[in-house]
Every structure is written in structure tokens, then in C-alpha cells.
Amino acid sequence: GDQDIDFSPAFEMYMCTRDSTAQFTPDLCSRVTFVNFTVTPSSLQSQCMNALLKSERPDVDRKREDQLKLQGECKVKMRELEEQLLHALSNVEGSILEDVKVIATLEKIKKESSEIQEKLGQTDAIMQEINETSALYDPA
């Protein structure tokens, strides 16, 4: 949760699932190593492209990882803002338009969400550049 704890650098954890629909956040994906034994042509191509980028263009690969992490963090922040909004609206006493606290919360959430949307737009543009760079290595 909310506290950092010490751990051994030799610590390893292995997790296994047969659920092919399991979804993981980009933040988690950037911090762990996945071994996917389900091979499809597109997944194999994607894995090979990632390995190639890591070898040939580590700068592009690092930028891609950073952008994926940033996208995940932005999505988490947006969920937190949605929860704050729902909490503020559910605790309204009287009219929403007359509750100064709720209006201030709504304005703060609106400002933060627009900043996050701007960041997401920037990351989308950077990811497009990364995809164009990756396409240079695509033989097809």
C-alpha cells in the first residue's frame, strides 16, 4: 500500500495464469518482465520488434517505455479524479449550485483533468513518432 518496505535484491516472484484475457496496467508492464507462452503471429512480431528496438535503438525503446508508464499514470490519475468527483457529488448538502466546496472541487478537477488530457495528447504524438521509427524496421 502506502509504505515502502525493504526487500532483498535477490527476491523473485513468479506468477502464472491461464487467463488469456488478463489485462495489466502500463505501469505494471514497465516494471516487470512478462513471459507469454501464447504465440500468435502478431504477438511474435511485436515481441521481436521490441527486442530489435531495445538492441538497435535503445533511446527509442526507453522513450516508448517512459511514455507507456506516463500513460498508465495519467489513466490512474483520471480514475482518482473521477472518484473525487463522485465523492464530492454524493456528499452535497442542499443545492449543488450553492455548495461552495463542491464548486471549488469541480473547478479543481476540471483543471487537473484538462492538464492530464493535454499530457495524454502529447504522449499520443510521441508514441506516433515511435511507431513511425519502429515501422522503419518492419520488413512488411
Keywords summarizing the entry:
140 residues; mainly alpha
Short recap of the structure:
The protein is mainly α.
What composes the largest sheet? none
Overall residue-averaged pLDDT value: 86
Helix content: 55-70%
Strand portion: under 5%
User: Helix and strand string, N-terminal first?
Assistant: HHHH
Radius of gyration, rounded? 21 Å
Number of strands: 0
Shape annotation: extended
Count, helices: 4
Low-pLDDT runs: none
SSE class: mainly alpha
Distance between the termini: 45 Å
Describe the SSE topology.
Layout lengths: L25 H6 L9 H16 L1 H33 L9 H36 L5
Can you tell me about this structure?
There is one protein chain. 4% of the residues are buried. The chain is extended, with a radius of gyration of 21 Å. The longest helix is centred in the last third of the chain and has 36 residues, at 100-135. It is built from 4 helices and no strands. It has 140 residues and is mainly α. The model has no long low-confidence stretch (mean pLDDT 86). The termini are far apart.
